[in-house]
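To whoever is on call:

I kicked off a structure prediction for a single chain this morning and the downstream step that reads the tokens threw a length-mismatch warning. I double-checked the sequence; it's 133 residues and nothing unusual in it as far as I can see. Pasting both halves so you can look.
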Amino acid sequence: MLPSQLGAGDSLLDSLLTQLEAFCWEQRDAFGIRLAVEEALVNAIRHGNCLDCGKRVHVKCQLTAEEFWIRIEDEGDGFDPNGLPDPTAPENLEVPSGRGVMLMRNFMSLVEYNEQGNCVEMGKRRSDLASAE
């Protein structure tokens, strides 16, 4: 569990990078995973829990030499991830919302939200293993 304050996930991210290196994950995969997890954590803390220090972010993670999976759940009301405006549309280029979810979807193989929209599960298989099959 993490407190709802920005920067609370920094040690988790550092540990994750260390473990990805230990399993010899490609640098591009490690970068994408770190970025996606950081975006999900910031979204949970800032938007989900609204920086409420009485709320927590619950994290469950599994990492092997072949696959990565993480579940991040906040204690907020949730949102509709499909209702976000397309951040690449010309009228939204100056709008800051929606970019984090777009990045998560681009860097991860799996990005799924629960029905309430307060929990995201993300997964990725190593690129060098996926391309070898």
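Update from on-call: the warning came from a stale cache, not from the record. Cleared it. Sanity check on the structure: The first helix runs from residue 10 to 22.
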